[in-house]
């Protein structure tokens, strides 16, 4: 082997740019790399160093040329996965990758070609579904090609799965027509029936009325039966069929059937999870998240069904939460990010509303909880339920005043009028000062901070002054509380010493010989537990947040904040960490324009690590379109991979 092949063939991670002697030296060996069977290792090197390449276009051309001829499915699949998840590459070269992918689907005569073509078909679909500028029309022609049913199984099976995923997003009738053709192929009948069932389940979620919903659910269930009949080893189809049966049993008040189907759902979901382990299906996480949501819903359905007909005093404290989760199941059980329709509520809501309408004690219970809602309570769902039940009973909405419950309305109006007169006489500067004092001067969170932490607080808050949502008093009050808690967390973990640390905070220190550097999940769990112990309503790995999954979701009255967690091994300066801001602010699409990024800094620290005041700051992310809202993110850089001051 040549020295270059030895470098490419070494075990572990791909060589770094420095291992090649720098970018110029790598390009000096470009011809040899292009003809090597290990060329993909060089491609991995280029992708890892993409943000600091001086010739990213040359790197893209190198990758494109290799992809046009490579026929090894293992090589192609791994590299295409990396490319589809690489924002730097996709920003300027998604169209080129799409052209290559569509062209590579044309040849699938042999089994090897078919498997490779299927991988490129998946890439074309992923690019089209990503919402980029990639047009879907060339892909649709490939998907509905009548010749696909006679292609080798490796390609035809990918077409079937792509047809189902495409329909869930685009709802084009030609896609289901094409799927029906595959049900005549014995080796593909089960897959085709399953995808057809998922298409009809998606239609059920978007049904406009109860009869349409029931029709689509029934059709979906029949296709799941067909999938199971063609291949008994279908825990996925069994799980979805049980989910449909469980919802229908709940609506009918058949608690015995509900318990049976819920148990089947849990068994099948567990089997499917084991079956999926290790498969290349990460881009379809939405499907598996939906299965998990059905699993959770089955538990809520059982709890709600058991207690809706039992006396209120016998309810456990969490029962009302289970009932509200069922009442708004359409929020959590979705097939795609666009599936916002509330059709599922057409089935589950009437039974709940009936129970609350005929038993005054249940309605009073909801009203009492709304008057003094616990912090972990789904207030919005409770408001929906109360409003629906009161409307059914013909109640008139209660009039409210700005003075709050228990205060005299006339006195409140007089106080408000006098207050407006006094404030009107103050100059704008004085009003702004009062505003800041009222919102920022919370002695329990700010006044007692040590000097460095107080300085840091002032700097972070100053960076948010132009954020409109931060000027809203309720948002400002709660977000300042989160900022203060995060500063305390950062200070605590910065001061933590190796000889006093617990296993939970071992991620802060340099690994011992033979140990690996920690993953971001260790920072995520530590920060979540810290916030939870500080009485924040914090959740981990929450699905359906702007189409994704939130690392940490912090809930406040009327809004929520997503904390994105990352780790950085090589470059962790503020300018370097800006590459994570796109994902961080993307979670703000459906809420306030405020977010947080927590980064575990695992870069070497031979001298010292930055001062507390250098490890937290505010980033303003301008909108790409002037007609849209800008966004803001508070960045927290937690120093890890540390040694003691003595060792430094």
Q: Would you give an account of this structure?
A:
With 648 residues, this protein is α/β, with parallel strands linked by helices. It has helices spanning 3-9, 23-28, 30-35, 39-48, 56-67, 73-84, 87-104, 111-129, 137-143, 153-170, 173-182, 189-205, 210-230, 235-252, 255-276, 285-308, 319-327, 329-332, 345-358, 360-371, 379-393, 409-424, 428-440, 443-447, 451-462, 473-495, 520-533, 574-577, 581-586, and strands at 537-545, 548-556, 559-568, 594-601, 616-621, 631-639. The protein has a six-stranded mixed beta sheet. Helix 11 packs antiparallel against helix 12 (189-205) and helix 16 (285-308) packs across helix 17. It starts with a helix and ends in a 9-residue tail after the last strand. Residues 398-412 and 437-444 have low confidence and may be disordered.
């Amino acid at each position: 082997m040549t020295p270059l092949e030895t470098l490419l063939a070494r075990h572990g991670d791909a060589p770094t740019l420095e291992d090649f002697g720098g970018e110029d030296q790598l390009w000096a060996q470009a011809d040899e790399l292009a003809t090597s069977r290990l060329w993909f290792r060089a491609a991995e090197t280029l992708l890892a160093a993409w943000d600091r390449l001086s010739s990213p276009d040359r790197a893209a051309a190198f990758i494109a040329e290799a992809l046009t001829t490579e026929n090894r499915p293992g090589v192609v699949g791994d590299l295409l996965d990396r490319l589809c998840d690489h924002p730097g590459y996709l920003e300027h070269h998604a169209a080129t990758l799409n052209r290559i992918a569509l062209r590579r689907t044309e040849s699938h005569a042999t089994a090897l070609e078919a498997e490779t073509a299927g991988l490129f078909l998946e890439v074309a679909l992923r690019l089209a579904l990503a919402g980029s500028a990639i047009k879907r029309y060339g892909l649709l022609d490939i998907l509905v090609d009548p010749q696909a049913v006679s292609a080798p199984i490796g390609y035809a099976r990918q077409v079937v799965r792509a047809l189902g995923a495409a329909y869930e997003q685009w709802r084009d009738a030609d896609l289901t027509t094409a799927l029906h053709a595959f049900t005549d192929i014995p080796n593909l009948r089960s897959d085709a029936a399953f995808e057809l069932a998922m298409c009809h389940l998606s239609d059920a979620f978007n049904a406009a009325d109860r009869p349409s919903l029931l029709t689509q659910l029934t059709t979906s269930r029949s296709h799941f039966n067909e999938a199971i009949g063609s291949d008994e080893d279908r825990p996925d189809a069994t799980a979805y069929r049980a989910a449909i049966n469980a919802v229908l049993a709940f609506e009918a008040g058949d608690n015995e059937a509900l318990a049976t189907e819920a148990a089947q759902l849990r068994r099948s979901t567990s089997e499917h999870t084991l079956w999926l382990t290790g498969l290349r299906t990460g881009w379809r996480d939405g499907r598996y998240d939906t299965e998990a949501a059905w699993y959770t819903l089955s538990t809520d359905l059982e709890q709600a069904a058991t207690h809706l007909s039992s006396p209120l005093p016998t309810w456990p404290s969490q029962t009302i939460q289970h009932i509200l989760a069922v009442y708004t199941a359409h929020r959590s059980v979705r097939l795609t990010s666009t599936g916002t329709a509330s059709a599922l509520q057409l089935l589950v809501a009437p039974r709940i509303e009936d129970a609350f309408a005929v038993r005054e004690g249940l309605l009073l219970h909801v009203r009492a909880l709304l008057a003094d809602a616990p912090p972990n309570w789904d207030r919005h769902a409770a408001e929906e339920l109360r409003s629906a039940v009161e409307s059914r009973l013909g109640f008139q909405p209660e009039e409210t005043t700005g003075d709050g419950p228990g205060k005299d309305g006339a006195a409140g109006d007089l106080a408000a009028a006098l207050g407006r007169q006094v404030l009107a006489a103050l100059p704008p500067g004085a009003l702004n000062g009062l505003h800041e004092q009222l919102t920022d001067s919370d002695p329990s969170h700010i006044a007692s901070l040590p000097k460095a932490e107080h300085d840091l607080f002032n700097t972070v808050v100053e960076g948010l002054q132009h954020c409109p949502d931060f000027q809203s008093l309720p948002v400002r009050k709660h977000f300042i509380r989160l900022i203060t808690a995060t500063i305390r967390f950062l200070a605590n973990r910065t001061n933590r010493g190796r000889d006093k640390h617990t296993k939970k905070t071992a991620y802060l220190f340099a690994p011992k010989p033979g140990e690996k550097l920690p993953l971001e999940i260790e920072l995520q769990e530590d920060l979540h537990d810290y916030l939870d112990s500080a009485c924040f309503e914090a959740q981990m790995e929450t699905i359906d947040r702007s189409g994704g999954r939130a690392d940490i979701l912090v809930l406040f009255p009327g809004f929520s904040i997503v904390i994105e967690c990352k780790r950085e091994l090589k470059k962790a300066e503020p300018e370097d960490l800006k590459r994570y801001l796109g994902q961080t602010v993307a979670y703000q699409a459906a809420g306030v324009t405020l977010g947080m990024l927590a980064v575990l800094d695992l870069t070497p620290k031979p001298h010292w690590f930055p001062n507390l005041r250098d490890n937290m700051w505010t980033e303003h992310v301008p909108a790409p379109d002037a007609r849209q809202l800008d966004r803001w993110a508070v960045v927290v850089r937690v120093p890890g991979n540390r040694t003691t001051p003595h060792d430094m």
